[in-house]
Design brief:
By secondary structure, this protein is mostly beta strands. The protein has three helices and 24 strands. The strands form six sheets. Strands 6, 7, 8, 9 and 10 form a five-stranded antiparallel sheet that branches. Strands 17, 18, 19, 20 and 21 form a five-stranded antiparallel sheet that branches.
């Protein structure tokens, strides 16, 4: 899970590709009470459709042991609540809530799968008993699920031998997510030779994309990931570049997510903190 923690750091990633300007974009702590209370590792999160709740997963035990939590974003202080999601002993990761708020999709090792995709549906009593979904690729590590602005489910899937990762999309119909199809969106992004694209997501307005990118080191390993940006201009995505200012560090920046209104970007630094910054600052950066 710690993609960057076992990889050596490199300096000045932004200078290799040219960062997005020299202007400082100062991120602020997001849900600091939550990360302090958990005193552990925090990973990718997502907002509820109304923006009042924030779903994320955190490491709770030794090895690959993760659980999904939900925190309120309202008020001056926040606490996180564990979501049982059926099997209390199974790892649960990468939560994603559908735009209508009726489905919660997440990755899980339950059922003996590497990391299959599961879904819980909302009722008046809360989230129901999870069940596997048709879009999940059996035996693969299915992860980084998120919902596209058009309502379709998007996710990354790594082959059982860990040699290849591909991006997929799936539509919800007749009570399930249909068989996954290759998502060709990410072939449109140019991160340059010598770099690896882990994942990414689109702004709700569709004009910005935030990408997780690592440099390929001479020894074949990958550097800790940074956040890069690409803008859609007249139907074409610009060459991606690292976000400048105070966004990226020598550590790991990853797991970006947008607030439903598109005003705020939240991401994770070093698997320890959630940070937020205004999307307007990204638009304004040269």
């Amino acid at each position: 899970m710690r993609r960057g923690s076992r990889l050596g750091a490199i300096l000045a990633l932004a200078s290799c590709q040219g960062g997005v300007g020299d202007a400082v974009i100062e991120p602020r702590p997001f849900l600091p009470d939550v990360t302090e209370a958990l005193a552990g590792e925090v990973f990718r999160g997502t907002f509820s459709p109304d923006g009042s709740d924030f779903y994320f997963f955190s490491k709770v035990g030794e090895g690959e042991d993760y659980r999904v939590f939900v925190a309120s974003t309202e008020g001056d202080s926040s606490t996180a609540t564990l979501l049982p999601l059926g099997d209390a002993n199974a790892s649960s990761m990468y939560p994603a809530v559908s735009p209508d708020g009726n489905q919660l999709v997440f990755s899980s090792s339950r059922g003996g799968d590497n990391a299959g995709l599961w879904m819980a549906e909302r009722s008046d009593a809360g989230w129901g008993e999870p069940r596997p979904i048709g879009a999940s690729l059996s035996g693969h590590y299915n992860a980084s699920s998120w919902f596209h602005p058009d309502g379709s489910l998007r996710f990354a899937s790594t082959t059982p031998d860990w040699s290849e990762t591909h991006f997929y999309r799936a539509e919800f119909a007749d009570g399930d997510f249909a068989a996954a199809e290759l998502d060709t969106t990410w072939a449109e992004f140019d991160v340059g030779e010598g770099y690896h694209l882990w994942s990414g997501l689109l702004h709700p307005g569709g004009e910005l994309a935030i990408l997780e990118v690592s440099a390929r080191l001479e020894d074949g390993r990958l550097s800790p990931s940074d956040l890069w940006i690409s803008r859609r201009v007249e139907g074409v995505w610009s060459v991606a570049a690292p976000l400048g200012g105070g966004v990226n560090t020598e550590g790991t920046e990853n797991f970006p997510t947008f607030s439903p209104d598109g005003v705020t970007l939240v991401y994770v630094r070093d698997f320890e903190h959630f940070l937020e910054l205004p999307v307007e600052a990204l638009r304004a950066a040269p």
